[in-house]
Amino acid sequence: MKISKALYPTLLVLLILLACSCQSPKELVYRDFKNLKLGKLGFGASTLNLDLVYYNPNNFGLQLKSTDLDIFVDNTYLGHSSQDLQINIPRLAEFTLPLQVELDMKNALKNVLPTLFGKEVVVKMTGKVKLGKANVYKSFTVNYESIQKFSAF
Question: Would you say the pTM of this structure is higher than 0.90?
Answer without folding.
Answer: no
